[in-house]
Amino acid sequence: MFVVGIVSSIANAKDTLRNLVETKECVLNVVSEGVIEAVNSTSIDTPYGVSEWDVSGLTPVYDCESVSCGRVKECVFSIEAKVESI
Prior knowledge:
Blueprint (H helix, E strand, L loop, with lengths): L14 H9 L1 E6 L5 H5 L11 H5 L3 E2 L9 E2 L4 E6 L4
Antiparallel strand pairs: 1-4, 2-3
């Protein structure tokens, strides 16, 4: 079991929280030092719908077994997850 904390209200939610509420799915990507700057670039405040994939230059891979969202190809490993509660 994992617990992920997001400090935001639903009304002011960024894409991550909105996507969790809507799809009830996510992928937890574990990063290595080589991609820290690219991953950090995904935290900038962009309008809803602007793709963090485009901002970061990271590569989405849609080969997950239990969720429909993508994982980050450049990450060390990824964990597919279903949301239990928000």
